[in-house]
Amino acid sequence: AAGLLFYSFQAFAGSITTSIACRKTVKSNGTLELHMVIRNSGNVTAYDVMVTLILEDVAKKYENLGNNPPGGKIEVEEKLIQPDLKPGNYVAVIQVDFKEESGIPHRVYHMVPITYLTNQAVPSDASLTMELTSPEFNGKAFWDRKGDIELHARNEGKEKLALKARLFPPDGLRCPKPDTAVTLAPESEKIERSPVQLTDSDKTIFPYHVVASWEKQRVHHSRLLPGKIITVERPVYFKWFVRGRGVLLGILFLLIIAGFIIKRHREKARTKQG
Prior knowledge:
By secondary structure, the chain is mostly beta strands. It is 14% helix and 53% strand.
């Protein structure tokens, strides 16, 4: 089966609309075959297309793919022979990078679920619960554009779990450390933070994904966690007004205390003189 996602970017005097599809086949000997198709149904060209396949510890880049004109497509074939994957479910990520004619870069993703070397559906591991918490940004501010995406993980089972997670941020959101690794003891929970920075103030919604994976009883598990950052429109002076009001109240309090001390000092001086 092939999955399909659409991404549209407004470029100068036109738009780039990218769709990504992938057909996957798992052979009985463990060979994984992937057929990736990147289409441009927009009306301007996507330049310098590059594709990256990310599957657990495998990261393969396909460069020098050229340009993708309107109505065009780029196909990439990959055959992973004995990729050292345990039976279970996986999430492969197809990352596509390209540029507008002006040189502005863009990056989009397509997530591909893969059932590997097992004829049965891998049941979801109910002992591990995960939840994402997104930061809030003010789209009008020129500062405070940094925050943390938090991954709340709780192991309610009796086995220790080694959890790996990777954040895939969209255009307009930068993450210097997308990879996270954490060990969860039985019946424990942890919060892992991934710092992000807002780099685009024109958009208001930034959907992102986290791919989490772990092994349990020699079976591999993967889970795709969607998240969304929504910017808010607040006057840029709001926070500074609140902070400034607190500072002014503090200064006023100190002036009152100082005035009281000076007054007492003068009264004592007058009493001595009398």
